[in-house]
Fold:
Amino acid sequence: MRALSLATLIGIAFAGPANAVDDYDLCIAMIVEDPARAEREAGEWARYGGGGAAARHCYALALIEIGASVRAADELIATASEEADLPNQARADLLVQAGELLVTTDYTATAAVVAGQALQLVPGDPGALGLRAAVRLANAKYRGALQDLNEALAKHKEDPRLLLRRASAQRLTGNAIAARDDASFATELAPELPDAWLERGRIEAKLGDKSGARASFLKAIELERDGKIARAAQLALQRMEAGVED
Structure:
């Protein structure tokens, strides 16, 4: 979601008032402690306190934390278009963050538009390319996704989410060996990322490495427990044990 780099950009853009960045930091800390309160107070800061993009970004993050992902995406898109003082990179980052939320909530058509807008602002932006690749993967346009991910990873070689997506694209285009390399690197860089372990397990199963796949699926389940990825890993494990190929 690129929140840290985006926060830095927003902090630079709003370095005018002495307490602007401090307020943003306090707002972010509040999300961890009390997301519902952060959503209320960040909303008030954004509407009445003159906090601008910093307040609106914190408000969007609070919305994500309380499970209102679509509302958060709407707020991020509106912030990118309405806050006149933001540099193009910050606008692109906001749009990418919104687009990632839209992909996870199955609004892929809107996410495709958002990715295009981000790429217009910052041509070749790795985050925007990764977002467009996610949309293409969702629409079974695997080779187009692979092209985007190759370009993005040429600039950000150690981004685990980009590597994870390229692993999926490689697997789906029949290059399981390259897919395994990307998935293994993704889990090395981000061992806490359950979807990377899920993808790694799928690739290992495809290559006939049942022991490795079993360990990877169980790791994905351990990391997320009751979520969507854990359920997908459980199903993939059951299918592998039953001899059904994905």
Summary: Residues 222 and 230 are 8 Å apart (CA to CA).
